[in-house]
Amino acid sequence: MNLRKLKRKVITSIFILIIFFPIINGTIHLIKDRENSENRKLADKPVLDFKKLDNFPKKYNSYYKDNFNFRNHLSYLYNLLNYKYQLDKTPIVIGKDKWLFTKKTVLTQYLGKNKFSEKELKIFKKEIQRRERIVDSLGGKYYFVIAPNKASVHREFLPNYVRNINPENNRTDQIVEILSSKPKNNFIDLRSILANKGKKEYLFFKNDNHWNSLGGYYAAEYIINRLINDGINTSQVYPIHEYNFHKTEKFGGNLINNLGLGKEFKEETYEMTPSEKIPEFIDLKNDKKYESPKGFPYPWEYYYRDQSEAKNKIKTLIVRDSFTNNLKPFLSQCFKETTYIWDS
């Protein structure tokens, strides 16, 4: 056998091995795939039912796209190249100084390109009024809090092609308009206060779409001041100088994690911890008064209940989302008892 023929056979064998190795490896698991970092449930393998074959190809295709061998390795390399060279080919927008934003938020919601329909607005208004009636019937007062997104507070870190566009009327503006038309002025809009504070201080994480401790503090302070101005006898948020600020390095964040790069890249941030002047509140989470609904993705975060040394008898129910994580340490100090339920 001459050298040329041998070379041809070796190249052919390597080519065949490359093609079939992912299939073989999927069976013997010689090389393990990276851990999936996407913030979603991957598609399950569908069960073949000869009586219901219509949807099987579509379901199996979704399953294969989510689970083919080396998928996470390839996704990691693709995202790493995008991040390092800011190619903007992922669901994450990479802005100035590597600040991350969700493409869905930046290119649609922030710029006003996915407005609510009239039907959706009517449904929203009807639901708000339903909740108001329930709270009124119990002798309470209902408030609806509007939190800004990262792009509207730290616009200076958006890519040039977004930063230089003046946002049109967006979904949040539509909601404010609906709430402003109601007889009761019971909504709290945090956008202006945080946008102004954000000109001097970082209020959001660089690698995450949530506000940091300082953003949560200013939001809580504004909310409580509004309640006090409305005649509600709540305690005030403790002054900011009574908190300790610790500079820390933070790996991860939901945006960098979605790229699968959470263990490789970190950011500098500050943590706020209460000084000795601020009494600790009691976390009653383990009383398990409310169980999370079946299928809820974060059952460990569905329900919290706190008691504090606040000198009032106010009990508060906060229907929350993930932004409440950095509100909770400050709000819970202002009420005698605070219950948090995640709106799923």
Number of helices: 12
Q: Helical content, roughly?
A: 25-40%
- Structural class, from secondary structure content? alpha/beta
* Global outline: elongated
Distance between the termini: 69 Å
The share of residues in extended strands comes to 5-15%
Radius of gyration: 25 Å
Sheet of most strands = 4 strands, mixed
Quick one: how many beta strands?
10
Unreliably modeled segments = none
What is the element string, with H for helices and E for strands? Answer: HHHEEHHEHHHEHHEHEEEEHE
Mean pLDDT: 85
Spatial strand sequence of the major β-sheet: 7-8-10-9
Key attributes of the depicted protein:
4-stranded mixed sheet; single chain; 344 residues; two-stranded antiparallel sheet
Please tell me about this protein's structure:
The structure is a single chain. A four-stranded mixed β-sheet has the order 7-8-10-9, with no helix packed on it. A two-stranded antiparallel ribbon has the order 1-2. 38% of the residues lie in helices and 14% in strands. The radius of gyration is 25 Å and the shape is elongated. The model has no long low-confidence stretch (mean pLDDT 85). The protein is α/β, with parallel strands linked by helices and 344 residues long.
